[in-house]
Amino acid sequence: MHPSLVVFILFMLSSTTYDAIHETYLWIGVYWQRLLPVLQPLWGTDVISAQATLTTGYWWYQWLGLVASPAFYLALYLAVLWTAVVLTRSRVPLRVLAGRFVFSLVPIAVAYHATHYVPSMLQQLPALLPQMADPFGRGWQLLPFLLTPPAPLPMAIVWHTQVAVLLTGHVAGVYLAHFAALQVFPTRRQGIASQLPMLALMVGYTCLGLWVLSLPLGLPQIVPVGG
């Protein structure tokens, strides 16, 4: 397996996680409420006059988070595989293990995409058919029926569906990792022992995904300097 495939799958996973967290109160508050008092000597005490500098800094803060997230996921993934090699005392190269086990992360990445983007798609779906009926804004009615926006889904249904999809993806990931372990390692005992770190990684991904889904969205207030 080429290393670029490993990086791509981990980027699929990490980018969705970052896209879900970067609009939350927690992530935005780290910059506007935690870093501003620390970096006050760089921009002074007048927030209004330093607005352009702070906005540029926030842009870099978001981009650094996007770049750092796949690097963090890759380092965590390789660390877990290295732990599996130590536990099993196997001579299988780490690069080989990374390529064989990375496919077990695909169901998790698919589940992350579904839980994050499907609710947004459902919100935009009522506007899709009217745009298909009049794609150029000419007042056309290409569809032979009138469209009424459906009632919004209750948040309880959306939340429980997201949890079910996320857990299903992680269970599938654990199964694929176990199947790959029995093929890679020479003995069944080594295969099972190698799954202890992978199981911890899968549980960690599950907890992280559920935690991100529970984070509130919104913009925090800027903490007054010296306040």
Give a brief rundown of this model.
With 227 residues, the protein is mainly α.
Q: What would the keywords be for this entry?
A:
227 residues; mainly alpha; 74% helix
Tell me what the structure shows:
The protein is an all-alpha fold and 227 residues long. It has one domain. 74% of the residues lie in helices and 0% in strands. The protein has 8 helices and no strands. α1 packs across α4 and α7 runs antiparallel to α8 (188-214). The longest helix is centred in the N-terminal third of the chain and has 38 residues, at 51-88.
Radius of gyration: 23 Å
Share of residues in strands: under 5%
Instruction: Please tell me the overall pLDDT.
Output: 80
Helix fraction, binned, reads over 70%
Please give the largest β-sheet: none
Return the structural class. Answer: mainly alpha
Taking pLDDT < 50 over at least 5 consecutive residues as the criterion, the unreliable ranges are 223-227
Distance between the termini: 55 Å
Instruction: Give the overall form.
Output: globular
Q: Give me the number of helical elements.
A: 8
Give a count of the beta strands, DSSP E runs of length 2 or more. Answer: 0
- Provide the succession of SSEs: HHHHHHHH
Compute the number of structural domains. 1
Q: Which SSEs are present, and which pair or pack?
A:
Layout: H1 3-21, H2 25-38, H3 40-43, H4 51-88, H5 94-101, H6 106-133, H7 155-184, H8 188-214
